[in-house]
Specification:
heterodimer, A: about 260 residues, alpha/beta, Rossmann fold, six-stranded mixed β-sheet, globular, B: mainly alpha, ABC transporter involved in vitamin B12 uptake, BtuC, 2 domains, 19 helices, elongated
C-alpha cells in the first residue's frame, strides 16, 4: 500500500542509498501529507535512520531525489528542524541546557552573529514549553535521559521550523517524558507543523501517529495509520529480511559494482 | 634565581619582545586547541606537528638553492619560508589521512599513525641531508625538533605572535559555529551552517597554530601545547567560555616559561620546559580541581562513607527504640553493636561525631537519641522499608532478597525521590517483612 497525497510536505522519489556500495535502502517512493505526525517504523537495520538522514541531506542519495514543500532541500533548510538520537552526541560537553537550546537559533542567526536577547528569550521559552525551565543552567551531563531528550526537543522548537524530523524521540525516556513529548507533538500538529519520527515500538505507534511509513530495506507501506496497520503488512515488514535483497547488496559491495549503470 | 629576577623585571627590550611573542604563541595554540580537543581530534594535531618537518626542510633546501643561484637573498631560515613550507606539507598530510581512511579499509587512527611516522621520517632524512650539506646557514635548523626560542630574533617571535593573535581573533569570531560543530556536527549541517567550509577553516587554524608554536615547543612536542591546556582547563569548569579563558592562561604561562628558559639557558631546547610546565598544570588539575579532580572525588567518597556510618548508627538506635517502644532510652555500645555489628572504635568515633552534630546525647557510658536523631533514624528506616516495598511490588524481587539493596539505597534517596516513591506505592504502612514503616511526622 502506498497512498499518494497532493501538495505533500515531503516527497521522496525513487531514492536508493548505499553505504560503501552496499544498498541499504532500495527505490523508496512516497509522499507525506502536511500537518501530520508520521511514524517511520521497521525492525532494526531496516534503514529508518538512513531514510531520515537522506531527507536532510546528511547521507548522499545514490539515486532519486527528496523534496520538502515541493522544493529541493537547500531552498527550505530554514523550515526544517532535527532532533537526533540522544546517544549521537557526547553529553560530557562544557555546556548548559540553555546553551544547547540556544544552538537551535544559530541557523537563523547566520555566521559570525552572536545570539541576541531575543534568541535567549526564545531559548527560555522553549525550555519552558518542554517543562524544564528550572534546569536551564544545569550542565547537560547532569541531566537524566528524559531531560536530555527534552533539551533536544527544546532546541528543535527554538528553530521555529515547519517540518520536524526526529530520530527515536521516545527511546530511553521515562513515561512522564514520553507523555510530555507526545503532548507537545500534538500541539505542534494543531499549528500545522509536520513531524516525521523514527519509532520502533508497535504498541504505541497506532496511538501516536496519523500516518505510518513501514520500512524494511524498501518501502513496505505508506499511508494513514489505521489503514497501514494490518497483520499482512506488519508481517511483510517484520517477517524477516528479504534475504535475496541482502545477498545482492553484499555482492554489489564485494564486486565494487555501482548501483546505477551511469 | 638571579636570572629569574632579572627576567621578571623585563628591563631588556629583547626579553620583553620574546616574552610577549611566546605568550601569544601559547594563547593561540591553546585557544584553537580547545576545539581540536572537544572534537576529539587531538591525534590529528600531533600528526600535523610531525608533518611540518619535511615541509620546513624542503623550504630551506629550496630557498638555499635559489640563494646559491643568486635569485634571492632571503635567508633559508626566514620564518615566512618556514611557515609556507610547513603549511603545505602539513596540509598534504591531512588530505592524505582523509583520503586513506575514506578510500581504503584502513581506519582513521591507523591512517594518522602511518602518515605521522612517514612524514616525520622523511623530515628527519632531509634534516640529516641539510646538516651534511654545504649550506652556510644550516646551523640551528635542528632546533625545530625540540624548540628553541633563543634561535629566533625578537622580530621573528613577534611575527609568530601576530599570527597567533589573528588565529585567536578568527576562532572567537566563529565561536558559536565551532561550539555547535564540536557538540553536534549533523545538527550544525541540518541547521544550514556551511559545515564543510567551517571544518576546513578550523583545520587551517589548527595547522597554523601548530606552525607558530613549533619554534617554541618543537615538532615532537607541539601536540602538548595544543591539547594539554584545554584538557587541564576542562577539569575546572563546565562552561566553554571559561574553559577557553583558562586554557589561554595556561598557554600564556607555558609561553612565558619558554621565554624564561631561553633567557636562562640560550643553548638548551625550550620545548621540554614548556611541556613540563604544562604537564604540571595538567597534573594539578587532575588532582585538585573541584568536582572533577581526584582529590574532590576522594573527599566525596569519604563524606559518603562517613554519612553511611552515621546513618547506620542512628538506624540501629532507632531499631532498638522500636523494639522496646522507647526511642530516647540510653543504650550502651554493646547494645548497639549487638543490633548492628561494626568495629568498636568506628562506632565510638561515629557516636562522638553524632553528639557534636546534635543527633545523640551522652549519658555516662551510654548514648541516647535526641529528637533530631530520632527523626533521622526514622527517615532512614522509612526509606529502607519503602525501597523494599518498591522492589517486591514493582521490580518483582523476592522479599528475602531485597534487604541488601535497600541497605545502600536508603542513604542516597533524595527527598524528591522519597516523595515520588511514597506516591507511587500509595503511602504503604507495612514493609514486606510485616514491619511498620515509620511515617514522616510520626
Amino acid at each position: 500500500m502506498n497512498v499518494a497525497v497532493d501538495n505533500p510536505a515531503l516527497e521522496i522519489h525513487d531514492l536508493t542509498i548505499s553505504y560503501n556500495r552496499r544498498p541499504v535502502l532500495w527505490d523508496v517512493d512516497l509522499t507525506i501529507p502536511e500537518g501530520a505526525i508520521v511514524g517511520v517504523i521497521g525492525p532494526n537495520g531496516a534503514g529508518k535512520t538512513t531514510l531520515i538522514k537522506a531527507v536532510m541531506g546528511l547521507v548522499p542519495a545514490g539515486s532519486g531525489y527528496v523534496q520538502i514543500y515541493g522544493r529541493p532541500l537547500d531552498e527550505v533548510r530554514e523550515r526544517i528542524s532535527y532532533v537526533p538520537q540522544r546517544e549521537s552526541v557526547d553529553w560530557d560537553f562544557p555546556a548548559s541546557a540553555r546553551d544547547v537550546v540556544l544552538m537551535g537559533r544559530y541557523g537563523k542567526l547566520g555566521l559570525f552573529r552572536r545570539p541576541r536577547r531575543a534568541d535567549r528569550d526564545k531559548a527560555d521559552e522553549c525550555l519552558h514549553r518542554v517543562g524544564i525551565e528550572h534546569l536551564g543552567d544545569r550542565q547537560i551531563s547532569q541531566l537524566s535521559g528524559g531531560q536530555q531528550q527534552r533539551v533536544f526537543l527544546a532546541r528543535a522548537l527554538a528553530q521555529d521550523a515547519d517540518f520536524y524530523i526526529m530520530d527515536e524521540p521516545f527511546t530511553g525516556v521515562d513515561a512522564a517524558t514520553e507523555a510530555a513529548i507526545v503532548e507537545i507533538l500534538r500541539g505542534m500538529r494543531a499549528r500545522g507543523r509536520t513531524i516525521l519520527a523514527v519509532h520502533h515500538d508497535l504498541q504505541s505507534a497506532l496511538d501516536y501517529f496519523d500516518w505510518v511509513v513501514l520500512l524494511n530495506m524498501r518501502l513496505v507501506a505508506s499511508g494513514p495509520a489505521d489503514k497501514v496497520f494490518t497483520a499482512e503488512l506488519l508481517q511483510k515488514t517484520y517477517g524477516g529480511k528479504l534475504t535475496l535483497l541482502s545477498k545482492v547488496g553484499n555482492l554489489l559491495q564485494k564486486e565494487e559494482f555501482p548501483t546505477r549503470e551511469t | 634565581m638571579n636570572s629569574l629576577i632579572e627576567f621578571l623585571t623585563f628591563d631588556d627590550p629583547g626579553v620583553r619582545a620574546v616574552s610577549l611573542g611566546a605568550m601569544l604563541l601559547g594563547i593561540g595554540a591553546a585557544v584553537v586547541g580547545c576545539f581540536t580537543f572537544l572534537r576529539k581530534r587531538a591525534l590529528v594535531g600531533d600528526a600535523v606537528a610531525h608533518a611540518v618537518l619535511p615541509g620546513v626542510c624542503l623550504a630551506f633546501i629550496l630557498v638555499d638553492f635559489m640563494g646559491s643561484l643568486g635569485w634571492t637573498d632571503i635567508s633559508p631560515k626566514h620564518p615566512l619560508a618556514l611557515i609556507v613550507g610547513a603549511f603545505v606539507s602539513s596540509w598534504i598530510s591531512l588530505r592524505l589521512i582523509d583520503y586513506i581512511s575514506f578510500k581504503s579499509r584502513i581506519k582513521e587512527d591507523t591512517a594518522i599513525g602511518l602518515v605521522l611516522s612517514v612524514f616525520f621520517g622523511i623530515g628527519i632524512l632531509l634534516l640529516t641531508l641539510i646538516q651534511h650539506g654545504s649550506s652556510a646557514e644550516k646551523a640551528g635548523l635542528n632546533s625545530i625538533l625540540f624548540g628553541r626560542i633563543a634561535a629566533l630574533t625578537a622580530g621573528d617571535v613577534l611575527l609568530f605572535g601576530a599570527v597567533a593573535t589573528v588565529l585567536v581573533f578568527i576562532t572567537l569570531m566563529l565561536y558559536k559555529e565551532f561550539q555547535l560543530m564540536s557538540f553536534d556536527e549533523e545538527f550544525a549541517a541540518v541547521t544550514g551552517l556551511p559545515v564543510r567550509r567551517l571544518e576546513l577553516t578550523l583545520t587551517t587554524l589548527t595547522v597554523l597554530a601548530v606552525i607558530v608554536a613549533i619554534q617554541a615547543v618543537g615538532v615532537v612536542m607541539t601536540a602538548a601545547i595544543l591539547i594539554t591546556p584545554p584538557a587541564a582547563a576542562r577539569y575546572w569548569t563546565e562552561r566553554l567560555p571559561v574553559m577557553i579563558l583558562l586554557a589561554a592562561l595556561f598557554g600564556a604561562l607555558a609561553g612565558l616559561t619558554g621565554a624564561y628558559a631561553s633567557f636562562a639557558a640560550p643553548r638548551a631546547p625550550t620545548g621540554p620546559w614548556i611541556v613540563i610546565v604544562l604537564t604540571g598544570f595538567a597534573i594539578l588539575s587532575v588532582l585538585f580541581a573541584p568536582r572533577r579532580g581526584a582529590l574532590a572525588r576522594q573527599l566525596r567518597q569519604r563524606r559518603n562513607a562517613g554519612r553511611i556510618r552515621h546513618e547506620n548508627i542512628l538506624k540501629a538506635l532507632f531499631h532498638l527504640g522500636e523494639q522496646d517502644d522507647d526511642f530516647y532510652a540510653a543504650r550502651s555500645s554493646d547494645d548497639i553493636l549487638a543490633r548492628r555489628p561494626m568495629d568498636g572504635t568506628v562506632l565510638r568515633r561515629g557516636l562522638e561525631q553524632l553528639r557534636r552534630h546534635g543527633y545523640v546525647r551522652r549519658e555516662g557510658a551510654a548514648w541516647a537519641l535526641t529528637a533530631e536523631g530520632r527523626m533521622r533514624g526514622a527517615r532512614i528506616t522509612r526509606l529502607h522499608r519503602l525501597w523494599e516495598v518498591y522492589l517486591t511490588q514493582y521490580v518483582g524481587i523476592a522479599p528475602d532478597h531485597v534487604h541488601d539493596d535497600a541497605e545502600t539505597i536508603e542513604h542516597i534517596l533524595t527527598p524528591e525521590l522519597e516523595h515520588e516513591l511514597e506516591a507511587l506505592l500509595d503511602h504503604p504502612q507495612i514493609d514486606p517483612h510485616a514491619r511498620v514503616i515509620p511515617q514522616k511526622h510520626g
